[in-house]
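Lecture notes, part 5. Sequence design as translation. It can be helpful to think of inverse folding as translation between two languages: the language of shapes and the language of residues. The source text, in structure tokens, appears below.
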């Protein structure tokens, strides 16, 4: 039995133990690792994420009434609410479920009550899109059990709406789109203005290696929303609808129109958009160039956007010393969480040993290192109805 099948069975059995009947559906929503294009999505720019083979799984069955019961197995917690009166609850994880139900109902989708167990092998709050995967897994479960026709892009937008309007994090759309629309073996180049996307094959000879600092900082912390505000302020001062509208040349000419901190934030976004387009070109045939762009991205996130931290910098520097590593950078919002490195497959064992050793020497903590494969977006993995 494959690793994934074992996970599906496990969550199905847990549902049966909880509710005394088999689940009607089991849904798997992947996490995401962003290869490049950080803090650009909410500036209508470009991103290049992959959906990865770490999942939030939901086993669910319908209820005849409008009650929802959720059990989070990783946390050993549960919550219940009524679809007729959805309010924020005390449990942070459950507010994602309440939020998607609220947003789907607000959009005119009539939902059926549901009982569900949630389980996952995707680390939480590590910058790997766990909130989005949770939203997408629950929204897709509601969709299936309520027999609704919703396009994957629409589902992603509903999930983002839930996070912005209900949970209170002003995130962009990258994570939800990746979890809903990822394709096995591919990265997604997303234009966050038009929402057009292009599949870019990830060469089979490289692995996407994620190293987790172990340092956690939720997006509910004010720093993420603050960066958004700074970008909005930059666009306002420059009189453009979004930072996407600026080229590096135009920005250089307008430098004196911006206070120094805002200028650096804007410079990150403008240069990162450029790097992301170049990286999408390079992924197919020039991995050295791709890797250089990853290091440049990290440098810009560290010094201009100021969302790195010492732990992330240590991991990037340790990766740089291993031969066979093309590039490395922080992935996700930053302020802790993970780095992503592009590593030729035969260099992965060396990466695991050396990076772990250097990190431990510098911080007295062990990093967790995951080797990830580009995976399929949300899907139903079993149906027992
Ligand atoms: C978080 C958000 C995304 C994106 C990244 C930074 O993951 O959810 O929308 O803004 O941070 O690139």
């Amino acid at each position: 039995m494959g690793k994934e099948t074992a996970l599906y069975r496990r969550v199905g059995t847990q549902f049966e133990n909880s509710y005394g009947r088999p689940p009607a559906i089991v849904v798997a929503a992947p996490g995401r690792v962003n290869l490049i294009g950080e803090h650009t999505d909410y500036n209508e720019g470009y991103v290049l994420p992959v959906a990865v083979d770490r999942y939030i799984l939901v086993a669910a069955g319908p209820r005849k009434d409008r009650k929802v019961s959720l059990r989070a197995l990783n946390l050993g917690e549960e919550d219940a609410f009524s679809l007729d009166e959805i309010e924020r609850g005390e449990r942070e994880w459950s507010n994602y479920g309440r939020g998607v139900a609220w947003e789907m109902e607000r959009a005119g989708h009539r939902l059926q009550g549901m009982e569900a167990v949630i389980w996952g092998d995707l680390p939480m709050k590590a910058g790997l899109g766990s909130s989005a995967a949770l939203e997408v897994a629950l929204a897709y479960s509601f969709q299936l059990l309520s027999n609704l026709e919703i396009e994957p892009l629409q589902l992603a937008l509903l999930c983002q709406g839930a996070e912005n309007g209900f949970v209170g994090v002003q995130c962009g759309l990258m994570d939800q789109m990746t979890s809903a629309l990822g394709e096995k073996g591919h990265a997604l180049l997303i234009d966050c203005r038009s929402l057009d996307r292009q599949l870019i094959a990830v060469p089979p000879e490289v692995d996407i290696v994620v190293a987790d600092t172990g340092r956690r900082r939720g997006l509910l912390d004010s720093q993420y929303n603050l960066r958004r505000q700074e970008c909005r302020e930059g666009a306002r001062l420059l009189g453009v609808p979004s930072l996407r509208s600026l080229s590096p040349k135009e920005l250089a000419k307008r430098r004196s129109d911006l206070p120094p901190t805002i200028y650096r934030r804007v410079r990150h976004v403008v240069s990162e958009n450029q790097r992301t387009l170049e990286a999408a070109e390079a992924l197919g045939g020039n991995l050295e160039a791709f890797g250089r762009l990853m290091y440049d991205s990290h440098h810009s996130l560290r010094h201009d956007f100021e969302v790195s931290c010492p732990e992330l910098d240590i991991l990037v520097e340790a990766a740089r010393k291993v031969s066979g590593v093309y590039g490395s950078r922080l992935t996700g919002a930053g302020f802790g969480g993970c780095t992503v490195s592009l590593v030729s497959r035969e260099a992965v064992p060396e990466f695991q040993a050396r990076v772990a050793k250097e990190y431990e020497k510098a911080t007295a903590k062990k990093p967790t290192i995951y080797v990830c494969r580009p995976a399929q977006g949300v899907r139903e993995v079993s149906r027992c109805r």
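The translated text above is only one of many valid answers, since several sequences can fold into similar shapes. Residues 173 and 355 are 31 Å apart (CA to CA).
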